[in-house]
Amino acid sequence: MTVVGFLIITPIAYSEMAYQKQISFLILQLLFLTLVLASANGNSLKLGFYLKTCPKAEAIVETVTADHISLAPSLAAPLLRMHFHDSEKSGPPNLSLRGFQVIDAAKTALEKACPGVVSCADILALVARDAIYQIKVVPLGRRDGRVSIALESLTLPAPFGNITELKAQFASKGLSVKDLVVLSGGHTVGTSHCSTIAIRLYNFTGKGDTDPSLDPKYVPYLKSKCKPTDTTTLLEMDPGSFRTFDEAYYTNVLKRRGLFQSDAALLADKETSAYVKLQAQSGGSTFFKDFEESMVKMGQIGVLTGSAGEIRKHCALVN
Ligand SMILES: *[C@@H]1O[C@H](CO)[C@@H](O)[C@H](O)[C@H]1NC(C)=O
Ligand SMILES: *[C@@H]1O[C@H](CO)[C@@H](O)[C@H](O)[C@H]1NC(C)=O
Ligand SMILES: *[C@@H]1O[C@H](CO)[C@@H](O)[C@H](O)[C@H]1NC(C)=O
Fold it and tell me: Is the CB of 319 under 6 A from ligand 2?
């Protein structure tokens, strides 16, 4: 089963049934979010935050994102990553991060429509949503931080972490073990350079060995794609369906074919491995719902609201 990811914007085949399933899930999700947000206080994020101040904000971002993604579907992964970085209070991402042109284009269009109103942090959240999911519900009202830090090297989550480190990294942001295994599912889309796994393939413990947690039958294929010093070749993170937002990532991880150590690490913990198995064996029964929940949760970490922070004029620079 496939779907969601680029429902409208790329030529990926999807079945009518899966589409229906997605729609009913969205309605449930909308109800869920409405309940959550109705009980939140006035200073937190809201759905429809820009309804009065910039009514076309969400439509503008959606159009800009769709235009870019239709030309380069693999942009979805870095866009999701940017939202994650921003949620780590790092401020809008370094200009050199792939995908920044989408943020920049959206910001330019929004400044034209309603100058000084829509924060870059909210643009990142909207673009991530539009890129990964065609969902209509992301609570808004973030303001932009007054510091900007380059966080190029981080991914979602850090590719070299073992399970203890990953759990600690997530816990420090108020994210659960479930969020960890769910958000790791973001690796269902996108690519990574050979250099990220060179150590796993060629010198895992410094003795010219290979990471034993990799499926030995898969290693020759990876080695044929990636020579030891290759820094340019791109590997699919979810081979066979790397442009599709689906549960195939978990199937690969279960077969010990996850690309990163952090993927393999998910099998080293009872709770995360149970989740991997569940999604792999149930056709991703709850993955979309879980991903959306974790993404919304992640998007609420460390946000500035009310009169804190600022609304940036340019997303790469503090005012
Ligand atoms: C962005 O990252 C590049 C390369 O990592 C670095 O050289 C540059 O100084 C960074 N720019 C900013 C504004 O942080
Ligand atoms: C995880 O990595 C840390 C730091 O490198 C190390 O101290 C720890 O023993 C590792 N834990 C496991 C379970 O491998
Ligand atoms: C493998 O790692 C060891 C220890 O870090 C290092 O001394 C050695 O040069 C590495 N080998 C290669 C081929 O990079």
Answer: no
Q: Which CATH class is domain 163-296?
A: mainly alpha
Q: What is the pLDDT of residues 106-121, one digit of tens each?
A: 999 999 999 999 998 8
- Residue 314 contacts residue 91 (beta carbons within 8 Å): no
Q: How confident is the model at residue 140 (pLDDT cuts 50, 70, 90)?
A: low
CB 230 within 8 A of CB 236: no
The closest ligand to the CA of 95 turns out to be 1
Judge if the beta carbon of residue 162 lies within 6 A of ligand 2.
Answer: yes
Could you state, in order of their start, the residue ranges of all structural domains in the chain? 16-155, 163-296
Q: Which of 78-87, 248-257, 264-273 has the lowest mean pLDDT?
A: 78-87
Domain 16-155 has CATH 1.10.3210.10: no
Query: What's the CA gap between 81 and 37, in Å, rounded?
Result: 25
Spacing, Cα 208 to ligand 3 middle (Å): 7
Residues 6+ apart with CB under 8 A from 222: 197, 201, 214, 235
Task: Decide if 193 is catalytic.
Answer: no
Cα torsion 287, 291, 292, 295 to 10°: value is: 180
Selected catalytic residue, list 83, 85, 187, 193: 85
What's the rounded Cα separation, in Å, for the pair 122 and 54? Answer: 13
